[in-house]
Amino acid sequence: MGHGVFIHRSDSIYDDSPAERYQFPLQYLRRVEACVGDWIVYLEPRKVRGTRGYFAMAKVERVVPDPTATGMYLALIEPQSYLDFANPVPFSDASGVVERGLLNELGRVSQGRAIWAVRPLSADDFNRIVARGLNESEPLLPRTGEFSPSSLRDEQPPFELEQSRDRASITLTRAIRDRVFRQVVLRAYDERCAISGLKLINGMGRAEVAAAHIRPVEANGPDIVSNGIALSGTVHWMFDRGLISLSDDLRILISRKANDPDSIRALINKDGCARLPRRPSERPHPAFLKWHRENFDFKP
Question: Where does the HNH nuclease domain lie (predicted)?
């Protein structure tokens, strides 16, 4: 087992879904197989405009031939392992490249190695990238009842990195996953409720809005931004109970079982559409919206 870097871009020609699978050709098979059972990090290439750099981590469960494409393979991601970084890590900064394993004997980036779509990652580089990616430099405080400041202080550290001579392992708590998920979702929605359009900031300068899972964690919903939506308190309550939902084209739907639909209409955006993140890849995925409509007994 070993760590790796998987290059991914949202407009990829490959059939990738970072929280579920990574498609790749035969030439990378041995490198991907070396990552089975271990953690990898995703990297958006530098040539992508507005690149996020190293933007997420996940654990590879197994590798299988792609049944839909000859000569292609799928790295299947372990369920519930994917996690976006609270702070995407740039490929390089003032101190140089973060991934030191790309440097040659002269201390320069090996251009041949740097363009590999899949490449091994040392324990030191893995630790460095993950520590920076999960560092919540400006955590967004949750609403009362989600997490308290004291609970954050009691949990030290929220994630554990263990390193041996040639590999590293990481243990993530549910608390850190929830906090990181909240941060990436609220950042995508500019701390604004997608349904009501409200952006409320409390006296401490923090957003009074929740990061809701569309498909809940308890139902195997992943901690990925496209399975999240920013909602204010009352709207969150209605969403979780199937009083409101979203169509695939992100129109706001009101259930027939709502006993006061006019009051609900007064809370939602006047045009009846959800406010969306700028990046298409961060918008609610149709598969999660379908699950929400079907499994919360939503009947428009």
Answer: 193-246
Distances (CA, A) of 106 to 103, 115, 119, 155, 180: 7, 18, 20, 42, 37
| Per-position b or e across 71-109, b if 16+ CB within 10 A of its CB | eebbbebeebbbbbbbbbbebeeeeebbbeebeeeeeeb
- Whether the predicted pLDDT of 141 surpasses 50: no
Tell me how far apart the 2 most distant CA atoms of the chain are, in Å: 71
Banded pLDDT at 152 (limits 50, 70, 90):
very low
When the candidates are 3.10.590.10, 1.20.58.220, 2.60.40.230, 3.90.480.20, the CATH number that belongs to 3-135 is: 3.10.590.10
d(CA 243, CA 184): 26
What per-residue confidence (pLDDT) applies to 1? 72
| pTM (predicted TM-score) | 0.80
The residues spanned by each domain of the chain are 3-135, 177-295
Pick from 19, 44, 81, 58: which is nearest to 285 by CA?
19
pLDDT attached to residue 166? 53
Mean pLDDT of the 68-75 span = 96
Query: What stretch of H or E contains 63?
Result: strand 54-65
Give Cβ neighbours of residue 131 (< 8 Å, ≥ 6 apart).
161
- Six-digit token string for 185: 């979702």
Closest Cα to residue 44, out of 12, 18, 15, 8?
8
